Amino acid sequence: MLSSDWSLSGVESGRKMRKRSSEALRRIISTLASKNEELQNFLEAVDHTLTGLQEESCKVMSDLEAELEKLNSALEEKGAELRYIIKEEKQRKEAELQKQLSEGKFALVSCEELLDFANQTLTINTEEEFLAAAKQIKERVTMAPAFRLTTRPAVSDNMSQFTVDFSAERAGLQRLHFLPVPRAPQIDASSCVVRDNTITVTWRPPGEADSGGDSSSRPIERYDLEYRKTDRDSTLRVAGEACWEKVCDIIEPQVTISGLKFDSRFIAIRVRARNKAAAGEFSEPIAIETTAYNFSFDASTAHAELKVQGDTVTWEPQGVKGHDPRLRGKENKSSSRSATPSPNKTAASRGGRDRFAGESYTVLGDEEMTNGCHYWELRPLADWKSFSVGVAYRGSLGRFDQLGKGTGSWCLHASQWLQSSLAAKHNNRAKTLDWPLPHRIGIYCDYDNGDLLFIDVDHLRLVHAFKTKFSQPLVPAFTVWCGGITIATGLQVPSFMGNFLTTNRSLSSLSP
Description:
Blueprint: H1 2-121, H2 127-143, H3 167-174, E1 186-187, E2 193-195, E3 198-204, H4 206-209, E4 222-230, E5 245-250, E6 254-257, E7 266-275, E8 278-279, E9 286-289, E10 297-298, E11 306-309, E12 312-315, H5 325-328, H6 343-349, E13 362-365, E14 373-380, E15 386-393, E16 409-415, E17 421-426, E18 429-432, E19 441-446, E20 451-456, E21 461-467, E22 474-481, E23 484-488, H7 497-503
Antiparallel strand pairs: 1-3, 2-3, 3-6, 4-5, 4-7, 7-8, 7-9, 10-13, 11-12, 12-23, 13-22, 14-19, 14-23, 15-16, 15-22, 16-17, 17-18, 19-20, 20-21
Protein name: Fibronectin type III and SPRY domain containing 1-like
Pfam family, one: fn3
Keywords: Coiled coil
């Protein structure tokens, strides 16, 4: 008996040891898996950096060659200009001197001829001939070119006014170097604001971020900001995550990024400074949390005649006239089949146990609400006739149940079939609302406080408010008949909701 107890004790001890070893091994496996993912991300980041280095090196080398070409071209142009000035002055002086040389030669020949004539006149013996020749000589001397010609060169050979000294320029060329690169700015995370699906980012310029900055640096002219969506707050990019999106040529050390869809946990942001064409390093990225309610249509729940495409649902009948009695009345009255198949036949012909059928042209959202505040928007398409939007307990809706008919769904129903109408529905009760059909509806759900509000966003007016107590997980719910709707998700609760939440708590609503 004692041996049997020892044997059982040994088995139990072995089991405990194995369990402890298994747990330790699982921890090691988890650590190794995390390290493996970290190394993969690191290698991807290094590879991405290497590719960027090669691209940037080619770019700056090309920019250098272009700048040298411009510099050489400027020198050639200035040299040609100076050569032309010297050549033009030389030609002008040459023309003046050539003219004087020609006139001087002509005057010399004329003077020599007159001198010979005068010498010959001295040999004339006849007085009358001598006097006539002397008179002629006197007249010719008065008109002789030699006595009207300036015997000084019209221009000098001095060209010293065109002397150049480019020693200062040569020294400047020798001082040529790369532009001083600005240091990275520092993002002020405490001053960044996330509101209404916009992010305002503020940073300190390099001079302020680093008090020991180089005073010789060129002034900052522009900033570049990059951001990307991520589900982690680490700086390394994980495979499959979005690439950086850019906002360029920012003048002030602040920028607001608007029109964002918050469909990730964080948005990583980094910024760099530029002076002229030189860009510095990016700042260390910061991860800003972007909390919002993000969901999609759950296509597996959609009625077979509803077509789900992204954020849009359209009604596309498959030989069925629809749930309106006027449409069904056009069917062959002698036929024993109704326009809408019976539940039993529908159940047999529709695939998927959760898909809505019959006259419940419904589709649900794929993300549950169990606490907190949530907001999304709906827009009907141009050809819409009837739709409902609201929330429902997923488990409380049968395949043939319509929104607002039971205790587990609340909705706003809009119709412009035959006549326009707007109503709030819950527990098979409807409250007609005296309000024009909205073109953009905001839906706000505060699960903890039991608030469900419908807002006419274009006019910022409260259309209707339900006050209840939610006891099960909720999902967004939609009904579409004739036409279609589109939704906007990934939205923060807008700041304007504060006005409705503080001033409209006392509005009457249907009892749950």
